[in-house]
Amino acid sequence: MDDEASVRFFLEETLRKSGHVVATASSGEEALDLIRDTRFDLAIVDLRLGGRVDGLRVLETVRWRWPGTAVVILTAHGSLESAMAAIREGVDGYLLKPAEADQVRRAAREALERRRNVVPCPPEAGEEVLQSGPFSVDLQKHAVTVDGRPLELTPREFNLLVHLMQNVDRVVSPPELVRAMAQYEAEDLYEARQVVKWYVHRLRRKVEPDPASPRYVVNVRGVGYRFEPG
Fold this sequence. Notes:
The protein has 230 residues and is of the alpha/beta class. The chain has 8 helices and 9 strands. The strands form 3 sheets. A 4-stranded antiparallel beta sheet has the order 4-5-6-7, with helices on one face. Strands 1-2-3 form a 3-stranded parallel beta sheet, with helices on both faces. A two-stranded antiparallel sheet has the order 8-9. Strand 5 and strand 6 (143-146) form a beta hairpin. Helix 6 (155-166) packs across helix 7 and helix 7 crosses helix 8 (189-207).
């Protein structure tokens, strides 16, 4: 999905030679039409598609409509803000133009592998349910309750909570939390902190009695986050 004909041709030829069946779109509107009724294994999306619908809107729609689709962002407009926005929507790869054919093939291969690995491995015996304070987490059903009240968490919010609960006796660093919840390696500590801060904010809104004075997901300034059972 790219608004430049030369880029679309390059991507199509590169992926076809790797054995993929490819469909292309030149605008956000065309992209939405493509994904409305068809599930793709992989989507390569330009953040700044032509038309009224930009790449982030397409990305949001893919994640909502087809959560199992792997997504790679390919753009000439790289920035921390755009990378974080893409990460928040669960991208599996991020490439800057101009990209070489080998880079595209590698990104596509790794994105497909990463998306397959997002499905959690079966928990070890005796670890099907995590219990800590008022929290009960069923790892197989991806179900969370607090004081018996069911919560609706996104996959990354769920992964964040589970990793904190599994490490209840220590402070977990932002880079480790990014890896645990998004299978993503942050470029640096600043980026990791910003990504985790956003997810922690969302998680607190769902699990804390008073998100402004968190009781369970506690920040240890300059180090990371710790789970307090209460």
